[in-house]
Amino acid sequence: MCSLAWQGDRRVKPRSQSSVAVSADGARWLLLNASPDLRQQIIASPSLHPRGAMRQSPIAAVFLTNADADHIAGLLSLREQQPFLLFGSKAALAQARSGIFGVLNPGLVQARAVELDRPAHTGLGLTLTPFAVPGKVPLYLEGEEVEIGTENESTAGLAISDGKSQFFYVPGCAKIHDGLRKRLWGAKLLFFDGTTFTDDEMVRLGVSKKTAWRMGHVAMSGREGSLNALASCGIGRKIYVHINNTNPVLIENSAERAVVAQAGWEVAYDGMEVCL
Question: What is the pTM of this model?
């Protein structure tokens, strides 16, 4: 997929890493994770451009669903002396505020620890309710033995509401069980983990020894994959995010993309806008 993109193949749109911006009023924005590509994503998104005052940014808050490097590295692009709120679990915030990420000025960046299954009011017209999903600790915190599929603060999904509409954001999930299906049942909109199409995708291609499960992600296909596991949940709009560059759904006319589209799923792309 990368080779096709570098060659300019029109079937493959180049994509930056996973991050979503949400707003209830179009003026103040909340980031769902801070991608390493955040700087270029801001430049490409007029809604996130500074307006007026010096050091001003429409980005008023960031929520970290976990402390994976791909979700916190963009915080380094938000250290230029503008205030914002940083939400996340106690564990995610502690990991995000340590080491190099200590450059965030605590006088300007207020950390707000949230608890699972308890609504957090952002002051931006948006309420966030985090919930545990099966996952694992970030790669850089792994020890000799790694527990995968555990449910705790390490990996969270989000229900996001403006009081009128609600959607779900689950960019990382190792397994879909009955409890998660029940939570997502009948949702108007879902952004969900689309890392790989098959569980052994990266192993089969020879680019890694890890399966999707070993990385803490559920594959799209297979009996326990998200295509099958969420098929009967009555979800209005389903969008895959957090897609690895080995996933063939990135090729627009591939057989895998046709399978995904037939099942009613969309594949996210840079600049995609959704209104509820």
Answer: 0.94
